[in-house]
Amino acid sequence: MKVALIQLAYGDDESVLDRTARVAHLVRAQAGHDLVVLPELWPAGGFDYTAWDERAEAVDGPVAQALAAAARDARVTLHGGSIVERAEPVEADGRGLWNTSLVFSPDGELVATYRKIHRFGFGEGEPSLMDAGADLVVLDVPVATGGTVSVGLSTCYDLRFPELYRRLLDRGAEVFVIPAAWPRRRVAHWTLLGQARAVEDQCVVIQCNTAGTHARHEMGGHSQVVDATGKVLAAAGLDEEVLSIDIDTTVTPEWRRTFPVLADRRLS
């Protein structure tokens, strides 16, 4: 499975229109990969809370359309990071805004959405502005070598909640994809928890973070790919970077067979 992680950097001086065009160009440049991944909330600004309502859009809005076209042109499965989604509230007291990941097929079709379950902010930020998602999402991603790979979706702060990944594992996930807007001051947690999720669930972990500084927050970068044994296969630095790697996904079931820790689970 050939994967490209686009560790995007942006600041407050770049318009959403210009950033979207730049991102679409970067995605098109990744032709030949099976899966391309973008960071969390790159169109709206991961920490730019005051702009979220203005920049919210539907899952078929202009950002989604640009991403769909880029995925189709590059012939890749594209995890488009996430947008601030606007839709009809699910609950009577809902806000109608979600932190929603979008996944497009190589044909440009929207094949999966994931509304972030765990909202970061301790009562402020996401919890005060957005609704929580409720659905687990695992999808099959086709690979050029034949067959598919089962990918479980989560976003940023979700990484701190291991029970979510156990449930994705039980739904057949072999790979976890985690886009994020994780700040630099806690980036050690980002890398450590990625390895922990890989080791405890014997899954490959693909983490795509944001670089740069926006809304007075310096982002942590350090996107990484971790194999099912916890070994870091590739890691980015602090700046904008495209991390490209071939992942041998056949190693995962072999590791689970030779070190069958998951078979000893007693609680679920």
From TrEMBL:
State a single Pfam family of this protein: CN_hydrolase
On whether Transmembrane is a keyword of this UniProt record, the answer is no
Classify the source by domain of life: Bacteria
**CN hydrolase domain span:** 1-249
- Keyword set includes Aminoacyl-tRNA synthetase: no
Q: Which PROSITE patterns match?
A: CN_HYDROLASE, UPF0012
- Record-level Gene Ontology MF annotations: hydrolase activity
Q: Which residues form a coiled coil?
A: none
Question: What InterPro entries does the entry give?
Answer: C-N_Hydrolase, C-N_Hydrolase_sf, UPF0012_CS
Keywords carried by this UniProt record: Hydrolase
Give the family this protein belongs to, as stated in its UniProt record. Belongs to the carbon-nitrogen hydrolase superfamily. NIT1/NIT2 family.
What this protein is called in its record is: Hydrolase
* Species of the source: Terrabacter aerolatus
